[in-house]
Amino acid sequence: MKQQQEAALREAALRQQQEAALKQQQENALRQQQEYALRLQQENVLRQQQEVSMRETALRQQQENAIRQQQENTLRQQQESALRQQQENSIRQQQENVLRQQQEMALRQQQEIAMKQQKEASLKQQQEAFRLQQQKESAFRLPENVLGPQPSMSLPMVPIQFTAETTRPQTIASHTLTADERATKATRKLTIVDSGVLYEDDSIQIALKSDYQRGEGRLDFYIANRTLEQVSGLRILVPPVSYVTSRLTPPPPTIAPQSQAVFQIIYKCEVPFESYPDIQFSMLVRGLSKILKLKVPLAITKFCDPQPCEAQHWFGAWNQIKGFPLEIQNMFQAVTANVVHIQELLSKGFRFAVISGVDTNPLNLVGASFFRSTQGEFPCFARLETNPSAGMIRLTLKSSNAQLTSSLRNIFLLHLGVESSQGQPSQSSLPSMPSLPSQSSQPSQPSFPKGW
């Protein structure tokens, strides 16, 4: 009986355990279902939120694109409007310039016609006065056999009438130089002086003032407007060359009547040279285009600096340079054999220091200088032997650069020699002249004393 009760209890306990396990399983299954449902619900909510966010992003992107497109269209319209306005202003400005030029030309023609009529009227009055004077004199003139032959009558002198644009009376000569011929002579003169007039005509004058130091030249150009009208559209063109570099500080584009404008060009020498650099001026004068193509008087000697030294140092350097092409000698007919004039030209014009105590002949001169460039510095030497009775000069030049020696020879001959019919200094022969003493042995390459 007791065993039956224990078995019944065990069965009841087992049944309870089974029921509890089943209940636990049911609860777990329910909880899993609830969690799965909740997870599905959360995923749905999250998916919906993402879809909403994507729709909002797409809408915002569309709005931004629309705004950007509007801004670009507005900017393009503004640019087109500004360009159209500039074109219209340019056309209007051109039309106004053409109209103003036409008006100025018409006014100038009227003024010229009026001045011509005034001159004709004045000439007629003078002729009429002269005719009346002749009539009066003929009425009271005595017969020639009483007082002898009478002097012939001549027209009275008419004084020169100067206008505001007249600067000097014109000299009557067999040949009047043109503005270009005067500019050529001025360029030649300015190669040995630091300031002067480079070009001039009845409307424009261009003057030059220069300063050279250690291979650099500062050239100030002064453009004077001689007319009673404004000069406009002033432009300066400096074509580049290989032997010098230039830096231009341009002038203002306009010059008031009876006024001047100033601009500067800085030149730096690169290598020895012979030709002059070009410069071009373009402007509107009295409504007409004016273009001037000139030469800048930039000579090789402008970049030389005088080099004073003792006679023995000069001898030592002179004797180290021998033979062509570092040494060149020319004999020629001289413009003047005056030693004082040549000495002044050598020191001030060619920028050579005149060395004393070298040549015992008082009619001869020797000099020394340094040519300076961005490529280096080169000593230069000159000896001029004059023969005043024959009007001749023998020129000997030496330097450590062949091109430099040749260039120096050309500038010396340009100012010292008499030009032949071919435009070059005439060369001839001189009586034998003594040579400078030399040392017995010299190095093949120049090795100059300290300071050279």
CATH topology of the domain at 179-298: Immunoglobulin-like
- The CATH class name of the domain at 179-298 reads Mainly Beta
Helix share, percent: 40-55%
Q: State the end-to-end CA separation.
A: 147 Å
- In N-to-C order, the SSE pattern is HHHEEEEEEEEEHEHEEEEH
InterPro entries: Clathrin_a-adaptin_app_sub_C, Clathrin_a/b/g-adaptin_app_Ig, Clathrin_app_Ig-like_sf, Coatomer/calthrin_app_sub_C, TBP_dom_sf
Region (Disordered): 63-89, 421-452
Pfam families: Alpha_adaptin_C (PF02296)
Protein name: Clathrin adaptor alpha/beta/gamma-adaptin appendage Ig-like subdomain domain-containing protein
Tag the structure with descriptive keywords.
452 residues; single chain; 42% helix; alpha+beta; Clathrin_a/b/g-adaptin_app_Ig; TATA-Binding Protein; Immunoglobulin-like; 6 helices; protein transport; five-stranded antiparallel beta sheet; six-stranded antiparallel beta sheet; transport
